């Protein structure tokens, strides 16, 4: 009986410890989820400002010159480039960098709001300053949030956490486009103030929420040392190629076509300014957008735009729940292959709207988010920050180059623009097949 009673007491003790451990782990998992969602608010704001900034600058078109608007629009890239280097200059923990990025977004948005509402003259310096701060936030977000999600995720969920960065980015794009389509100009100051207040509240909320893990930057070695390593060459090449492919394939979707589709809803009496450089550069893209939406007789163009963003979100979630089962390499190969198939239909103008929607879907399923997921996994911890800086710089620089040359190239060879994209993706496809090893997602190491 004594033995029986002793065993019973041990079983009760073990059961109590297991129950306590279960609730502790459950509570910790909840905190990790909240921390991941809070960190992804930065990528949400990056997408929001990425889509909202062009719309905001349009409101100044009657107050400043076209050349001034051009400088203000492009200064965001300079800010983003410098923002990518912030983690190497300030080696704080990742939580601090996420809060710093949010502060940059808040300062930039506040400056633009004040300029639009109060300042009547000499807008250019203030607009440039606002754009510059937003760019700093974008660059710092690109290099720190994917790292934070990688280290925050538990075993077997790193793929899902990595997808959250891209999904939050698409949500930001969607909200900005919705406001751009439906918001009246006289409501802009009020909405801008609400956005600023939201930013400030997020800063206050981040401090306790992000404290679940005090993840420090592992910037033990610098960028130059990383480039000198022979074993790092394949990882660096792969990071640059993935970011280049993502920008080339995604640029057509979000930066050009979707931002110009709504321009076709101009009053019938308006005549385009033939001397306007912007009108000349974007006319070909607007015409192509018309061809896409002319095939949709059952939806208005505004609803079609929002539908495309919703489809991107849906397939982003689908990819998030498929990445651990399919594996990183299979997922990206499948996405690139399907992107090329839909590009063929777009080249020959077959079922344009359906082909375009399919292109958006398969891009969001794999190629769009996968680069941010893989990048922290192909560099060891001591080189991870340097690798992310290289990747972030590649993304910003390629985006800047495409912003400058894409309209000119599209104007000269609109029919072949998708063929060029298809060839670039084909190069990426065979490079991944022969040179990329699948990453398990649990250990970061060179390829």
TrEMBL record:
UniProt-listed Gene3D superfamilies: MFS general substrate transporter like domains (1.20.1250.20)
Q: How does it sit in the membrane?
A: Multi-pass membrane protein
Cellular component per GO, a single term: membrane
Where is each Major facilitator superfamily (MFS) profile domain found? 1-440
Q: Where in the cell is it found?
A: Membrane
Q: Where are the transmembrane segments?
A: 34-52, 64-86, 98-119, 125-149, 161-179, 191-210, 303-323, 330-348, 354-375, 387-410, 416-437
Please name one Pfam family that this protein belongs to: Sugar_tr
UniProt-recorded Gene Ontology molecular function terms? hexose transmembrane transporter activity
Describe the family membership recorded for this protein in Swiss-Prot or TrEMBL: Belongs to the major facilitator superfamily. Sugar transporter (TC 2.A.1.1) family.
Record's protein name: Major Facilitator Superfamily (MFS)
Q: Whose protein is this, by species?
A: Pseudoloma neurophilia
Show the taxonomic lineage.
Eukaryota, Fungi, Fungi incertae sedis, Microsporidia, Pseudoloma
């Amino acid at each position: 009986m004594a033995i029986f009673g002793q065993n019973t007491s041990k079983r009760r003790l073990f059961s109590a410890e297991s129950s306590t451990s279960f609730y502790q782990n459950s509570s910790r998992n909840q905190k990790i989820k909240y921390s991941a969602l809070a960190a992804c608010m930065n990528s949400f704001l990056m997408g929001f400002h990425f889509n909202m900034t062009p719309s905001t600058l349009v409101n100044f078109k009657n107050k400043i010159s076209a050349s001034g608007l051009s400088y203000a629009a492009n200064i965001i890239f300079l800010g983003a480039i410098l923002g990518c280097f912030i983690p190497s200059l300030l080696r704080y923990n990742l939580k601090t960098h996420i809060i710093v990025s949010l502060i940059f977004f808040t300062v930039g948005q506040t400056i633009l709001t004040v300029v639009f509402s109060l300042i009547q003259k000499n807008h250019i310096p203030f607009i440039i300053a606002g754009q510059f701060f937003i760019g700093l936030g974008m660059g710092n977000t690109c290099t720190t949030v994917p790292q934070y999600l990688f280290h925050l995720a538990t075993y077997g969920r790193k793929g899902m956490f990595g997808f959250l960065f891209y999904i939050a980015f698409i949500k930001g794009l969607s909200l900005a486009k919705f406001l751009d389509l439906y918001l009246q100009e006289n409501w802009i100051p009020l909405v801008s103030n609400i956005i600023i207040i939201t930013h400030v509240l997020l800063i206050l909320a981040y401090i306790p929420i992000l404290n679940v893990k005090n993840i420090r930057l592992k910037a033990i070695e610098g960028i130059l040392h990383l480039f000198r390593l022979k074993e790092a060459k394949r990882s660096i090449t792969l990071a640059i190629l993935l970011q280049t492919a993502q920008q080339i394939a995604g640029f057509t979707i979000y930066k050009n076509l979707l931002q110009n589709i709504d321009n076709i809803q101009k009053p019938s009496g308006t005549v385009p300014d033939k001397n306007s450089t912007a009108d000349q550069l974007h006319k070909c893209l607007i015409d192509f957008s018309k061809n896409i939406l002319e095939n949709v007789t059952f939806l208005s163009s505004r609803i079609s735009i929002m539908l495309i963003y919703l489809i991107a979100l849906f397939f982003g979630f689908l990819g998030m729940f498929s990445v651990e089962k399919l594996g990183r390499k299979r997922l990206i190969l499948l996405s690139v292959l399907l992107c090329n198939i839909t590009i063929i239909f777009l080249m020959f103008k077959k079922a344009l709207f359906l082909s375009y929607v399919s292109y958006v879907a398969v891009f969001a399923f794999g190629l769009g988010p996968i680069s941010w997921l893989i990048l922290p996994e192909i560099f060891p911890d001591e080189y991870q920050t340097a690798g992310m800086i290289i990747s972030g710089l590649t993304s910003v620089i390629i985006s800047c180059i495409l912003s400058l040359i894409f309209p000119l190239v599209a104007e000269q060879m609109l029919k072949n623009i998708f063929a060029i994209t298809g060839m670039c993706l084909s190069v990426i496809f065979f490079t991944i097949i022969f040179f990329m090893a699948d990453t398990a997602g649990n250990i970061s190491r060179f390829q």
